[in-house]
């Protein structure tokens, strides 16, 4: 096993990554609360506003248990923001899909986010590409595998 790196630059990079993640979640929680949603509900609604999908796929994308997503979708459905409907390609599968009101709420959430919506706004295209490539390299083979999952 490799010896952990504890040089000042490594420690600062780890701290900065943690700060970026914390800031993203704090802003997302504030925007969600303004719509009487939890951060998790807002993230599910935002994901579904891009495309209806089975709850198992939502769980995979958000890296959580499908049973958690079922509860979140239940609460969003009770608020009239999401509905369940049969998948046109396989009627045995149920898709979670945003309602018209859910699409509007998801749009308002995105508009309320500054840093979380565009945390890389200050970086050029070239800088974003370098950062992406470095993050992929940090994650190793898992990053390529996870990008290819449905």
Instruction: Tally the helices.
Output: 7
> Can you identify the CATH superfamily of the largest domain?
Winged helix-like DNA-binding domain superfamily/Winged helix DNA-binding domain
What low-confidence regions span 5 or more consecutive residues with pLDDT below 50?
none
Regarding CATH, which class of the largest domain? Mainly Alpha
CATH topology annotation of the largest domain: Arc Repressor Mutant, subunit A
Which term fits the overall shape? globular
**CATH architecture label of the largest domain:** Orthogonal Bundle
CA radius of gyration is 18 Å
* Helicity range: 55-70%
Instruction: Note the run of SSEs as H and E.
Output: HHHHEEHHH
Major sheet: arrangement of strands: 1-2
Strand content: 5-15%
What class do helices, strands and sheet pairing give? mainly alpha
Can you count the beta strands?
A: 2
Secondary structure elements and pairings:
Blueprint (H helix, E strand, L loop, with lengths): L7 H26 L5 H12 L4 H8 L3 H13 L3 E6 L2 E9 L1 H13 L12 H15 L1 H8 L2
Antiparallel strand pairs: 1-2
Helix pairs in contact: 1-2, 2-4, 2-5, 3-4
Description:
There is one protein chain. This protein has a two-stranded antiparallel sheet. The protein has helices at 8-33, 39-50, 55-62, 66-78, 100-112, 125-139, 141-148, and strands at residues 82-87, 90-98. The two termini are 33 Å apart. With 150 residues, it is mainly alpha-helical. It has two domains: 9-116, Arc Repressor Mutant, subunit A (Orthogonal Bundle), CATH 1.10.10; 120-150, no CATH class. This is MarR family transcriptional regulator. InterPro entries: HTH_MarR-typ, MarR/SlyA-like, Tscrpt_reg_MarR-type_CS, WH-like_DNA-bd_sf, WH_DNA-bd_sf. One of its GO terms (molecular function) is DNA-binding transcription factor activity. Keywords: DNA-binding, Transcription, Transcription regulation. Residues 10-140 form the HTH marR-type domain.
């Amino acid at each position: 096993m490799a010896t952990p790196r504890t040089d000042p630059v490594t420690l600062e990079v780890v701290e900065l990554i943690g700060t970026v993640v914390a800031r993203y979640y704090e802003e997302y929680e504030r925007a969600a609360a303004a719509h009487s949603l939890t951060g998790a509900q807002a993230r599910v609604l935002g994901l579904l506003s891009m495309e209806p999908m089975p709850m198992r796929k939502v769980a995979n994308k958000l890296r959580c248990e499908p049973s958690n997503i079922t509860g979140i979708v239940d609460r969003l459905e009770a608020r009239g923001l999401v509905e369940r409907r049969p998948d046109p390609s396989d009627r045995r599968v149920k898709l979670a899909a945003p309602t018209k009101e859910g699409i509007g709420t998801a749009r308002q959430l995105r508009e309320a986010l500054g840093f979380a919506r565009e945390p890389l706004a200050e970086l050029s295209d070239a800088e974003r590409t370098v950062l992406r490539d470095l993050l992929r390299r940090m994650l190793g083979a898992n990053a390529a595998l996870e990008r290819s999952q449905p």
